[in-house]
Amino acid sequence: QICNQHNAEVPNLEQVFHRMAQTEPSLDHDVSWFLLPSYWAKMVVALISFLCFANSYDGDFVFDDSEAIINNKDLRAETPFGDLWHHDFWGSKLSSNTSHKSYRPLTVLTFRINYLFAGGFYPVGFHVINIILHCTISVLMVDVFSILLGGLQFSNKGRRLNLAPKTSLIAALLFAVHPVHTECVAGIVGRADLLCALFFLLSFLGYCKAFRENKEGHNFSIFWVLVSVILGAIAMLCKEQGITILGLNAVFDVLVINKLNVLELIQKLLHKDKSLENAGLLRKGLLFRITLLMSGGATILYIRWRIMGTGPPAFTEVDNPASFADSLFVRAINYNYYYSLNAWLLLCPWWLCFDWSMGCIPLIKSVSDWRIIALAALWFCLIGLICQALCSEDSHKRRILTLGLGFLIIPFLPASNLFFRVGFVIAERVIYLPSIGYCILFTYGFSLLSKQAKKKKILAVAVLGILVINVMRCALRSSQWRSEEQLFRSALSVCPLNAKVHYNVGKNLADKGNQSAAIKYYREAVRLNPKYVHAMNNLGNILKERNELQEAEELLSLAVQIQPDFAAAWMNLGIVQNSLRRFEEAEQSYWTAIKHRKKYPDCYYNLGRLYADLNRHIDALNAWRNATVLKPEHSLAWNNMIILLDNTGNLAQAEAVGREALELIPNDHSLMFSLANVLGKSQKYKESEALFLKAIKANPNAASYHGNLAVLYHRWGNLDLAKKHYEVSLKLDPMAPGTKENYNLLRRKLEQLQKKGG
């Protein structure tokens, strides 16, 4: 039932309210909305936030998940636990020049726990934790919004009072169902934002607890202030934005605890007004608390800076083109345009994309560009809100607007390009915390409209409609995040000029074996961004496999010309040159790749194949040995060593290498097969038979396994078993080379034996 009753859940308010806020108007007074007890409100928020994203629970690892989770060695049990504290979010050493410098060890720790409990890379557990975290955060938002919208007041028993139960429920629901949060919840990498938000809110609520015993405005708990600082530090160890809560706590202290008029305070500071002493700053401990917050923040930042090293992360122009613009004017205009787009995503989260870089948003280079209107609209709204927040005679309005703007702007500052260059144009995940400020402003605007409107229920129905639409949009968007194919294709209509979108669609198609369609998208990616070396490399790879070697060589040569240290492109160029029988050039390309990537086992493997083609057997063996040293599980390199030694008559050495390989990779059936061949030639029939049978058990449909086992039985004299496996081999592959001839020989031999026996 929608009702207008005010504060029905809190009995005897006049006996328990503190003197400091008795006269403030209630935001709930004119709002027509559901009035629920606190625990019911939280249950409703939890349920609805769960419904929004529940369909993402069985999604795949998508987009950045592969790098942050699947390819991140810090998740595996064999990686020392201490390495987490010296590596970035992606598992690279922070001291490395290629490090992203994103230091989030606590987030990586939760990934590691997920991996260990699941016993491997099974995404369900990762997704479930993300959904639970968002539900928990949404529930906490009920308490946070009740403080931000209704003020901080306690009963005589020290229990916090909810003076805005209806508006805090509206704001919490708006936060819980906002579609822009889908990336954080449905994308596993968004765990960083979720954990950061959780400790961010706990830090804020902890700071509020510091004033539980505050009867006259000048008693507070130092313990809870310090707890708040520690929780802020934990938030920052989950993601960098977490540190901003310390600044917001200070703003909250000024506005809510001390009820200062910011504009009046600034004027007095500028005029060195002695009446500042009468403001009670020292008496109420404000300066002391802010000193604690700021010194705590400075200490945390210093430690973070020392761990990270002095060098900032290195980003490329395609990641954030505006930051590379030569003109300060162009940079400023485009940064502000990005801010307006972020604001639009909060207001109208309909066009969502997993990646907004690579030409998705062309640079504004002139004031004649019509998109300047978006900047003007943004600043018109912001200036209007700031003026009201500073100059309004209504202290209640000043407080809520300032808190709303503070929560909107301050958590966004690390992503604003103002202090350092960031590696993206727009990232929906970084709006997770600023959306708190948006929800405050939206709810306050709704309460003002309700105050003026005669038909309040119509407004309530409109807000309810927005919430329902957002729930549906969340469900649709989270279903798109369930697989890379759906995610990447959903971006084609939002960012058709984004080369990375076309690249990712092409890569997804190529991984599924649809090379013809992949070529189309790779070509479009290169057309949109003629310097997109990764698209050139992948396109060159496909053309190489289709034996279109000339165009493949042109693309790969251009890629290494644009990016001379692109090791993968050098290696692929070497493979193409090898196929074109330009062996010297191929060898040079391989060594150039190794020069730029010292630990490159696949390149050593391909170099070994080149040397084997040139009959440089010692060089081939050395190259393959290097590959296995760098990557002990490199099955192809081990196999090639065994086969080369076998073919050159070095059976004892081949056997030793085979046994060494199987110790490292005991379940590799191809290694069992190669070693079984060597043992058979060495007349170790029993051991050879056991390995053949084990290989066949692991891969029963390999015709060559049955064929070579038949040859072993043929040599051994077990003719019936030889006949059986020859027949199985021919059934699996009627054209198997040599098998039919050997089978015919065996049949003739069996016929001769039958005649002699007859």
UniProtKB/TrEMBL annotation:
Residues 311-383 form the DUF1736 domain. Its main location: endoplasmic reticulum. Its EC number is 2.4.1.109. PROSITE patterns: TPR, TPR_REGION. InterPro entries: O-mannosyl-transferase_TMTC, TMTC_DUF1736, TPR-like_helical_dom_sf, TPR_rpt. GO terms for molecular function: dolichyl-phosphate-mannose-protein mannosyltransferase activity. It is found in: Endoplasmic reticulum; Membrane. Keywords: Endoplasmic reticulum, Membrane, Repeat, TPR repeat, Transferase, Transmembrane, Transmembrane helix. Pathway: Protein modification; protein glycosylation. The keyword Cell wall biogenesis/degradation does not apply. Pfam families: TMTC_DUF1736, TPR_16, TPR_19. One of its GO terms (cellular component) is endoplasmic reticulum. It is a multi-pass membrane protein. The chain crosses the membrane at residues 39-57, 131-151, 163-182, 188-208, 220-237, 243-266, 286-305, 372-391, 403-424, 430-449, 458-476. GO terms for biological process: endoplasmic reticulum unfolded protein response. It is an enzyme of class 2 (transferase). TPR repeats lie at residues 499-532, 533-566, 601-634, 703-736. Belongs to the TMTC family. PANTHER family: PROTEIN O-MANNOSYL-TRANSFERASE TMTC4 (PTHR44227:SF3), PTHR44227. This is dolichyl-phosphate-mannose--protein mannosyltransferase. The gene is Tmtc4.
